[in-house]
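Lecture 7 notes: from sequence to structure.

We start with a single chain of 191 residues. Read the sequence below before looking at the structure.
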Amino acid sequence: MRKLVVSAWVTLDGIFDADTMQEWFFPFNSIAKDEYIRDSILEADALLVGRTTFEMLASYWPFQLNDDNGPASKINSMKKFVVSSKLEKADWNNSTIINKNIIEEIKKLKQQNGSEIQIPGSATLVQSLMKANLIDEYRLLVHPIIMGSGKRFFKNEMKTSGMKLVKTQTLDKGVVLLCYQLVNEWQLNNN
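Now the structure, written as tokens:
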């Protein structure tokens, strides 16, 4: 059975806006952060994304021919599942559109053999999957800056019963990796 993992890059106040990455993501670049991102991509055997994230990734990764670190060939060859009611075709290699019975289709994907299905970004999709209780782990790469405004990853109505911290890692320039697994109320009260 596969694990469904959310992978999000955010600021301290939860901003993940791609339009403002010049302000909050790139100033905190480091070799350690690049290695974490590369290793994270290499761990996944499939991606699950919403339309917006798919279009952003599909406009970049297929054209990355210098693959010294390994992520381009991996991300281009792995299976990609796009949840969208608007997208009519997905030309990026190994991409499949899921536009009906979304929750049931994702449950089926989780039952297949493999390691993990990673959801990079895709906050709207994550919100739907949170409500259906399908997410197994959240990996947040938190950047030490408060933006004050912008697109927030966790929006109103996004709620979990609780999470267990399973890993932390401090990277260079104050960037911190926080990994949480979902737990039920009984586990919270008995740990």
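The first helix runs from residue 21 to 24. Keep this in mind for problem set 3.
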